[in-house]
Amino acid sequence: SQQGEEDPQALSIQEGENATMNCSYKTSINNLQWYRQNSGRGLVHLILIRSNEREKHSGRLRVTLDTSKKSSSLLITASRAADTASYFCATDAPSQGAQKLVFGQGTRLTINP
Amino acid sequence: DGGITQSPKYLFRKEGQNVTLSCEQNLNHDAMYWYRQDPGQGLRLIYYSQIVNDFQKGDIAEGYSVSREKKESFPLTVTSAQKNPTAFYLCASSIFLWTEAFFGQGTRLTVV
After folding, report:
1. Under 8 Å CB-to-CB from A92, ≥6 apart: which residues?
2. How far apart are the C-alpha atoms of A90 and A73, rounded to whole Å?
3. What pLDDT, on a 0 to 100 scale, did the predictor assign at position A66?
4. Which helix (H) or strand (E) covers residue A62, if one does?
5. Which of A29, B4, B12, B43 is the most exposed place for a label (fewest CB within 10 A)?
6. B48 with B97: CB under 8 angstroms?
7. What is the distance between the alpha carbons of residues B34 and A90, in angstroms, rounded to a whole number?
8. CB–CB of A44 and B103 under 8 A?
9. Do A99 and B100 touch (CB under 8 A)?
10. Residues B90, A43: contact at Cβ < 8 Å?
11. B1 C-beta neighbours (distance < 10 Å), count
12. B50 touching A, CB under 8 A?
């Protein structure tokens, strides 16, 4: 099963509202990353948060990390139509005996105008 | 501009053929990766390379091969042994292994 699992799988909100996506993982990590993917395109890196950090901000993005609960959340404030995309969390976690960057299955975010 | 370039954007393969997907970066990154993405799914790691002339199998390497003869280039060959090759293939690079990754725009491979 996936190391990182996003919740919800799909989210649809009105423009201007805040969007929150969650990511849970199973094993200890050094860092957790969030990426955005527009339909049919490559991924774009948003934020990296280290295991000793609890919160990070970048513009309208806020990421929190709770290592005791093995979970992270991505908050997008004042959403815009251009935020419509899939959002993935990725953790550097053991996979088949080696450390790798493992992606979750993503949250599909739709911003309605 | 620095970046990572994948070509072609679309590729069609007949059953039994090998095809090679190109990935070039001018970011001076040591680490490079190939991921496969199926519809509505996350990314699965095929191969990765930490440095020139070195590469390691990822989680789904069977039916694929790579080379890393130059720092800038990490081509992926999808061989006839890959039974279900139709997918979206993404190449990425990073300064160090498993840190912030920069992705190409992907190659969509279809078996016809």
Report:
1. A29, A30, A31, A99, A100, A101, A102, B98
2. 12
3. 97
4. strand A61-66
5. B12
6. yes
7. 15
8. yes
9. no
10. yes
11. 3
12. no
Q: Is B75 on the interface with A (CB under 8 A)?
A: no
For the beta carbon of residue A80, count every other beta carbon within 10 angstroms. Answer: 12
Per-residue pLDDT of A3-47, as tens digits, reads: 678 889 999 999 999 999 999 998 888 899 999 999 999 999 999
Q: Out of A44, A95, A106, name the one closest to residue B42 (CB).
A: A106
The string of pLDDT tens digits covering residues A50-105 is 999 999 999 999 999 999 999 999 999 999 999 999 999 999 876 666 778 889 99
Tracing tokens 């990070």 back to the chain, one arrives at A56
Chain A contact for B27 (CB, 8 A cutoff): no
Angle at B20 between CA B93 and CA B108, to 5 degrees: 75
Predicted local confidence at residue A1, as pLDDT: 43
Task: Give dist(CA B112, CA B110) in Å, integer.
Answer: 6
Indicate the length of chain A as a whole number. 113
* B89 CB-side CA count, 13 A: 32
CA distance A2 to B43: 10
Among candidate residues A17, A70, A103, the one with its CA nearest the CA of residue B92:
A103
As given in the structure block, the two tokens for residue A93 are: 């976690």
Residues of A with CB under 8 A from a CB of B: 2, 4, 31, 33, 35, 40-45, 48, 88, 92, 95-96, 98-106
The structure tokens listed for A75 are 């908050």
Determine contact, residues B104/B91, Cβ cutoff 8 Å: yes
At B81, is the secondary structure helix, strand, or coil? Answer: coil
